[in-house]
Every structure is written in C-alpha cells, then in structure tokens.
Amino acid sequence: MLIGFIGSGHIGGTLAKLAVDAGHSVVLSNSRGPETLSDLVAELGPDARAATAGEAAAAGEVVVVTIPFGRYAEVPVEPLAGKVVIDTNNYYFERDGHFAEIDSGETTPSEVLAAHLPDSRVVKAFNAIHFRELATQGLPKGAEGRRALAIAGDDAEAKKVVGELIDSFGFDVVDAGPLSEGRRFDRDKPAYGPRFTAGELREALSRG
Question: What Cα–Cα distance (Å) separates residue 54 from each residue in 36, 77, 121, 175?
Fold first, then answer.
C-alpha cells in the first residue's frame, strides 16, 4: 500500500517507519517543503520519498494527517475525496487557540477535520500514544499483554483498513464507535496515554 503523510514530525515519522517496516511505501510531506525531509527519507530507504502536501494527498491510497490541529484547514480537500484519512491530531488549546465548538463539547477535533474533508472517510487513531511508545511497544499478534489502540470512525470499511494497519504495526485494536466517540480517548480522558490491553482499554473508554 502507498501511504501519504501530511505532516512528518514525531508521530508521522514514526508511523512512516512502521509502515515501511511492514512492507508499505510512503510519501512524506510537511509545511517546510520536500527538501527538508531528505534525512528522514534517507533513513527510511527506497520505499520513501518526499513531496508537497498536495502530492502526498493525491498519491496515498491511505493518507495520515498528523499536523497541529489548529492548522487543519490547510489540509488539501480535493485530493482526499473518497480516501481513508487517518487523523492523529490532538487539540491543545494552549497551542492551537480556543475553538468554542470543541470547548463546549458540541463537536470533537476529528469531526472538525471530517467537516473540512466532507468526501473523505476519516478515522481517528494514534493520538493517544506517545511516539516513542509507538516505535517500541508493538508486539506480534496474540502476544501476552499486547498493547491496544483505540479507533473511531463513521465508515466501517475505513475502520477495517485502519485496524488491519494497526495490527500489522504490533497493536491490538479497540473500536470506540463513530467518529463522535473519539472524544473518549482525547486529551485528559482515562483512555489517553496509558498502556492498556484491549480489555483494559475498553474499560477506560467506558469512563471517558
């Protein structure tokens, strides 16, 4: 699979390495231009290349959006129509500024991105794990104590695609429900941050 990345920071770069290690190809982008990604591309090898955000969006069969939430409106819309989009973003008002509709609980960060991408199939994932743990805590399927990651989304087939990708990266998957339920593993919720098995994660989500 060819996976596009809009954003190639700590989470994006870690996911790109996991993807290459699992046999996928990646197209990386950031806000500073493809030439600034030469070191990461060299590290990842021949299955990685750098591009603009628009090019990464157009090229990817699945596209990961992993940028500061406050810049979500910069995500290209048309190239992502019909595609599975993985949203790793977290809303930090200290960094992003306040969004009244999120602060009030009217909507969630992933739903805001989905509204910006009305023809994409957005799945929330990878936002509740530190990038270093993402890089090091994956285990083979069936391993005792395997860490689980939550996903949320409104499209069952898109969640299946993302779930299979997460499993290939070494983690169990817990489906938290529709995209609106992504609030259950947002910042400061019980399911945000700690290492949980699938059963433990379900219990934490129930308290979110």
Answer: 16, 9, 17, 30
Q: For residues 155 and 160, what is the distance between their CA atoms, to the nearest angstrom? A: 9
Q: Which domains does the chain have, with CATH numbers?
A: 2-206 (3.40.50.720)
pTM of the model: 0.97
Convert the pLDDT of each residue in 99-143 to its tens digit. Answer: 999 999 999 999 999 999 999 999 999 999 999 999 999 999 999
Mean pLDDT of all residues in 44-52: 98
The mean pLDDT of 17-44, rounded to a whole number, is 96
Region for residue 115 given its phi and psi (left: phi exceeds 0; alpha: psi -120 to 50; beta: otherwise): alpha
